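Entry for the shared binder. Reason: the reviewer on the internal report wants the predicted structure included alongside the sequence.
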Amino acid sequence: MLATNLGYPVDPLILNTLFIRGGQYVNKDELQDDALAKMGPNDWVLVEDFNYASIPADLSKLHSDPGQAAIIEIDFDHNPNDGIQTHFAPVVSWDGTTLLIGDPWYGSVDDFTKHYGTNPAQTILKIFRYRHAVPVPPVDPCADLKAQLAHAQDNLASLQAKIKNALVALQ
């Protein structure tokens, strides 16, 4: 989801294949913390990570600075008593109360509590903060409106020319 949002469409199957080919898995199905940073032409840089496997997660670390992205590792069934089934999801937003994640398992952006319980401090095992090494060009939110305005101005100029010609013809 993060890569796709930055103009590099990748689905989970492709990403898994890249991780396998790149030798990023350890212990059969666990990724190294800097696995994403090692993919592609060094597009991603691991800024920091926080391990909460044995302590409650510091939820203030979910916040990302502009140009950064946070990814969480969670216990999929949010029950630490039956072992840990790891799952990863990017943080879409965190306002200090509501945690929205882009969940690749469900293919949607959801409130964390919808699938992973009401105690994210217990369920979050790690928080990773990445930044994209290649600057992303800013998107002009008015680009469509500017194009429509230019088209309307062209139409207006054409109509003005026709009116002028019609007035000349009437004289």
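Summary line for the report: The chain has two domains: 2-132, 142-171.
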